[in-house]
Amino acid sequence: MFAYERDIAAVIGETIRNGAYAPPDWYWPEVRKFCDAYGALLVRDELPTGFGKMGWLFIHERFDVRPDITVIGKALGASVMPVAGIVVAAGLALPAGSNLGYFTHEKNPLSALVGRTTLEIIQDENLVLQARRLGNTGAVRLQELCEQYPFVREVRCEGLMFGIEFGGDDMDPVQVATIAEQVFRASVEEGVIPIFPSRSSLTLSAPLVIQESELEEALGGFQAAVRRVHQCWGG
Fold first, then answer.
1. pLDDT confidence of 197, banded at 50, 70, 90?
2. CATH 3.90.1150.10 for domain 127-232
3. Averaged pLDDT, 71-97
4. What would the CATH number be for the domain defined by 10-124?
């Protein structure tokens, strides 16, 4: 890309896609290297992954790559207040005296207070490390599905985000999509609402403040849903 388009201003992307799709460990360091070589900015969208849920305060820390600009929001407002912002590398930031602020919803004091309080709670209650620990527990539980049910092809885990991929060597795309939808509907009946990122997979995305007993209950409900679908298919 850089070899043919030498006037690229920035590379923008989510570090990890919904569904716990993570690139190889070498990927983002290579992107950073090319951005530096060609003078492009690296911009990370941490809206769905920031503030601890993935087992890191920001998931780009896992790849040991520092972006030039990080887009933040969602969890920053603790699901109470709509808050968004950007974190900019020191060399790119405007001088304090020049950043006067001209926009209606900029520098809202209530939103700022909610954001600061959220960060304090995340730090004081060690929620980042808790997310990593509970994520490992959940990964072990869900990995059992691959061993028990032939139509569960893969389980991915990044902190409190779990991706479950369906499929099998003897299954066509229509069958895979049908199973994914059936597991989704059965999960809702069990009190668990997954995300449907593709026709062949489901995502379980737990809140940062979830307790171990609540996670166990949710995973148990999802496992029950998979078991019900397996029985419907003659298992």
1. confident
2. yes
3. 84
4. 3.40.640.10
Write down the mean pLDDT value for the chain.
90
Over 70: is that where the pLDDT of 101 sits?
A: no
Here the tokens at position 46 are 């941490």
* Equal CATH topology for 10-124 and 127-232: no
In the chain, where the domains are located: 10-124, 127-232
Q: Give the tokens for residue 105.
A: 């919803």
Single pTM value for the model: 0.87
